Predict the structure of DUF4124 domain-containing protein.
Amino acid sequence: MPPKLLALLLICAVPMASAQSIYSWKDASGRVHYSDNPPPDAQTRKLREAPIAPARPAVQGQAAPQETYVEKEQAFRKRRAEAAEAEEKARRDEVQEQNRQQMCTNLRQQLAGLESGQRIARFADNGEPVFMEDNERAAEVEKTRASIDKNCK
């Protein structure tokens, strides 16, 4: 057998052998046996103990356990969804603020027009202009000021 192939087989076999317990015993005729299964009788000698996986710490003072790849992926997806949700909320808040600013600008312009003293006309159902009287203008000014006070702080 070529030396490279033998070395490769040994390298592959070492991890498998190191993960098992090995038992040694003598049978009735005096022959020594080696196996990864315990013998049927009680006269055994364990040569090597199988490595034990570290248990997850249950006490708070100990180090945190390693996350699995699935847990890491779930945490990443959760963070990404939360970031997208926060970005969407920020965008909605920005649009809402722009709409509020535009409404306030329109209300202030309407108030300036009402307080200017010029004649203001509205159109009736038949399409003819109807001019506002002083009491209608005063009521409209109060209504516009109340809207500005309520919405434009």
